[in-house]
Design brief:
single chain; about 250 residues; mainly alpha; two-stranded antiparallel sheet
């Protein structure tokens, strides 16, 4: 009997130690989860504050899309052939492609914007041709001026697209103009992919998979609210079955 009682006490103590260890592990897991959530929230809020401080006042005033961050669809040159239809239109008929982009983005009629682009291109070509025939430098200067005007015109509207739809990037207005001067077809193709793949219609971004960080209208309100996990009830099971088996052995 004494040996059975000792064995019973050892078994009960062992079960209690295991239960205490499991309880401690569960509490540590909950604490680790809370610390992880708090760290993520603090880091996110810190990054957002840095982003807000780096934003320009004009960009912060864009209330149409709040703090939704978007990006261009693919790289300018490397992903030029991702959509071959758009790439072919951008290379063979850039005036039509540019006008269609402007209509989608809500910056005018397709025919009007395409006509302006066509006039710039034809003027540059004719002046360059006149320089070859007459060898007069004035025609060359005019051709260069029209080419620069094309880059400035298209680069200006590329910047307007970025600002209107909150497309993030480190490119300035000068960079956008240079893109259209150096590789106009690739740049037009990137803009077209972005507008078409995200279903932009008449200046409205219907989108697919926006990355939402927060909204400017929220002010200093926390962008993420940390909800603590629901309380978990930990019930300590009583070793009734083992005691009953031991008692049964004793009675036997």
């Amino acid at each position: 009997m004494a040996e059975l009682e000792k064995q019973e006490k050892v078994v009960v103590n062992g079960n209690r130690e295991e239960e205490e260890e499991e309880r401690l592990l569960e509490e540590m897991t909950v604490l680790d989860f809370d610390m992880l959530c708090s760290t993520v929230v603090l880091q996110t809020q810190g990054k957002w504050r840095k982003l807000e401080s780096a934003e320009d006042c004009s960009e912060q005033g864009n209330a149409d899309f709040g703090g939704v961050l978007r990006m261009w669809e693919g790289e300018v040159v490397l992903d030029f052939l991702d959509d071959r239809r758009v790439a072919l239109q951008s290379a063979c008929c850039p005036c039509y492609r540019f006008g269609k982009n402007m209509r989608r983005a809500g910056f005018g009629f397709c025919f009007l914007q395409g006509t302006v682009y066509f006039i710039f291109v034809v003027s540059a070509f004719l002046n360059f041709l006149a320089f070859i025939v007459t060898k007069r430098n004035c025609f060359l200067y005019l051709a260069v001026a029209f080419i620069i005007s094309i880059g400035a015109y298209l680069g200006f509207f590329r910047t307007q697209i970025k600002r209107k739809f909150n497309i993030r990037g480190n490119d300035s207005l000068v960079d956008d103009c240079i893109y259209h001067l150096i590789c106009p077809c690739c740049t037009l193709s990137q803009e077209s992919r972005t507008l078409e793949m995200n279903n932009v219609q008449d200046g409205t971004w219907h989108g697919r998979g926006d990355i939402c960080i927060g909204s400017y209208g929220e002010g200093s309100k926390a962008f993420f609210e940390l909800h603590p996990p629901p309380p978990i009830s930990i019930k300590t099971p009583e070793p009734c079955s083992m005691q009953n088996s031991l008692n049964g052995d004793d009675n036997a």
